[in-house]
Amino acid sequence: MPTIGLFHSTVRAEEKLIIRAAREKKAGIKLIDIRNEVFNPLHYRPDFDIALERSVSTVKGGYATEFLEALGAVVINPSGVARICEDKFLTSLALQKTGVPTLKFAMAFSLEQAMAAVADLGGFPVVVKPPLGSWGRMLAKVNDRDSLEAIIEHKDVLGSPQQKAYYLQEYIQKPGRDIRSFVVGGETICAIYRTSSHWITNTALGGKATNCPVTKELSQLSLQAAKAVRGGILAIDIIETSEGLKVNEINHTMEFKNSEEPTGVSISGAIVDYCLQKINSND
């Protein structure tokens, strides 16, 4: 029986869905809490056929992935994919480099650089984001220089070194929603609208998920975005703009508990199938 090593920290609803899907498909599933592991290359012996990295902690998950790959294990998603997707600036660079429609962005390291970036982006308002982060946390819609000064001062005084890199993005007036599509392997399997009265539409912050039809345009854009970051199991965040659909961010350990019911698609089942296909292709 092929065995998936599920590397986790907190076991969320998503991991429970993956466990259930694996058991329904008669696949072995081994739960491995990375908080309890000692990753010593002299003694660690993988006892699974493929690793599925699902840690809540990006840092811990990243180190675990690099370690397992160094031992020759196959990890979903690979470290190269994770390294790009966990960093919003690197994601934007990858999208732009490959010609995927995306929002205008810039990186700055001081207030004056940030003000120059605002001008390049078309002026206020802009969105300031931490390069590393998820769940819509620490995002700020900045309407003027006074607000930008205050945010940068707080980041400089209170923030970690990563917070002192200011990732700025053009602000787009959404139609009360955005789109999250799910790509597994080479297929866009489903998508949701995330609707909210707030400009941040993340379901973690109360956005409501409803089914979004996967049109040819949406599918092609999602696959282009996935290819830009080297593919795998991904969630693509997309914004509807006056110029058409544009990719905002890409998630490599996405949450999907609010997406299976409205879409009628077993995302967890597709994840397990992808892992099993990878095991078979490596035999």
From TrEMBL:
**Pathway(s) it belongs to:** Amino-acid biosynthesis
Which top-rank group of organisms is this from?
Bacteria
Task: Read off the Gene3D superfamilies from this record.
Answer: 3.40.50.20, ATP-grasp fold, A domain, ATP-grasp fold, B domain
Annotated ranges, domain ATP-grasp: 92-276
Question: Its GO biological process terms?
Answer: lysine biosynthetic process
Q: Which GO terms describe its cellular component?
A: cytoplasm
Swiss-Prot/TrEMBL keywords: Amino-acid biosynthesis, ATP-binding, Ligase, Magnesium, Metal-binding, Nucleotide-binding
Which cofactors, if any, are listed as required? Answer: Mg(2+)
Pfam families listed in its UniProt record: LysX_preATP_grasp, RimK
Single GO MF annotation: ATP binding
InterPro entries per record:
ATP-grasp, ATP-grasp_RimK-type, ATP_grasp_subdomain_1, LysX/ArgX_preATP_grasp, LysX_arch, PreATP-grasp_dom_sf, Rp_bS6_RimK/Lys_biosynth_LsyX
Family in the record:
Belongs to the RimK family. LysX subfamily.
Q: Which PANTHER family match?
A: COENZYME GAMMA-F420-2:ALPHA-L-GLUTAMATE LIGASE, RIBOSOMAL PROTEIN S6 MODIFICATION PROTEIN
Tell me the protein's name. Answer: Lysine biosynthesis protein LysX
What is the scientific name of the source organism?
Candidatus Shapirobacteria bacterium CG11_big_fil_rev_8_21_14_0_20_40_12
